[in-house]
Amino acid sequence: MCISSRRRVWYYHDVMRDLSRITMTMIKKVAAALLFLTTIWAGLHLLFREKGRASKPAIIAHRGAAGLAPENTLAAIRVGLAHHAPYIEIDVQRSADGVLVVIHDETVDRTSNGRGPVRDLPWAALSRLDAGVYFAPRFAGEPIPTLDSVLHYLQDKQATLVLELKDPHFYPGMSEEILSLLGRYRAEDRVVVISFDHAELAAFHRLAPAIPIGLACARPWPIPHIAPGQTVDVFWPGVFLDPTFVRRMHRRGYRVWVWTANAPLLLRWLCWLGVDGITTDHPERASGAASGAAT
């Protein structure tokens, strides 16, 4: 090898060695900063955590039990009940011809073998769709349920239905229709109505002040005013980002629910933070975490 070639090799090795040192130094600094911030964060949560709060939150089975069965189907609701979830959460929309149906997305594409917006499809078309096979072959043929069929199934069950009004701006008059259906099954005392739409939720509360409501929020600030004694339902990272959140909401007279938490360690941490309810795809994990945190 000629001298110039050797110099290039030595130069290359020197550069790579220097880059490696710089990289390792940066990694150590970032790790130290993260450790420092984590320590401060944990300390703030310890400082602001309410003492004496019940550490066994209510378990809300998300979309029935979406981690164990096809979401928003009677199969998922049965699984949620089998795991003794005291609350069963579902999403409600309306078909093109006015039938209240249980489905989350604006379209049927993700959770069925059909295509198109829910609000553009008549019930005759929705009822023929397979809403189970996407999850597992053993659920093939599971239909999209109506709210009527869910209320009928739950009328003799020991569970509270958490009913989310999905995109109510697409469905004028849906609150009145839901109230009528709840009245038919005398289910007013076995339901909580939630929504991300503050105006619709307030309108529903004016129509039926005795029915509990929950304001769903993607972030912990700002929280619009709702009636005292009701629920604020926030995406779970919110209670981590704001160590004062649970205490502040309780002081305002609200219950605090979080969505959607599934990891066992996360579930235990949320119990420790003193939240009042945890929405989860896995009620079997959440029940164990809540029981463990309470002991």
Describe the structure.
By secondary structure, the protein is α/β, with parallel strands linked by helices. The chain has two domains: 48 residues; 243 residues, Alpha-Beta Barrel (TIM Barrel), CATH 3.20.20.190. It has ten helices and nine strands. It has an eight-stranded parallel β-barrel with strand order 1-2-4-5-6-7-8-9, surrounded by five helices. The longest helix has 46 residues. The radius of gyration is 25 Å and the shape is globular. The termini are far apart. The model has no long low-confidence stretch (mean pLDDT 89).
CATH topology of the largest domain: TIM Barrel
* Quaternary organization: single chain
CATH superfamily of the largest domain: Phosphatidylinositol (PI) phosphodiesterase
Main pleated sheet: 8 strands, parallel, barrel
Number of helices: 10
Order of helices and strands: HEHEEHHEHEHEEHHEHEH
- For the largest beta sheet, what order do the strands appear in spatially? 1-2-4-5-6-7-8-9
At the first level of CATH, what is the class of the largest domain?
Alpha Beta
Task: Summarize the topology.
Layout: H1 3-48, E1 58-61, H2 74-82, E2 87-94, E3 100-102, H3 123-126, H4 147-154, E4 160-165, H5 174-184, E5 191-195, H6 198-207, E6 213-217, E7 231-235, H7 237-241, H8 245-251, E8 255-259, H9 264-273, E9 277-280, H10 283-294
Parallel strand pairs: 1-2, 1-9, 2-4, 4-5, 5-6, 6-7, 7-8, 8-9
Antiparallel strand pairs: 2-3
Helix pairs in contact: 9-10
What is this structure, in a nutshell?
With 295 residues, the chain is of the alpha/beta class. It has 2 domains: 1-48; 52-294, TIM Barrel (Alpha-Beta Barrel), CATH 3.20.20. The protein has helices at 3-48, 74-82, 123-126, 147-154, 174-184, 198-207, 237-241, 245-251, 264-273, 283-294; strands at 58-61, 87-94, 100-102, 160-165, 191-195, 213-217, 231-235, 255-259, 277-280.
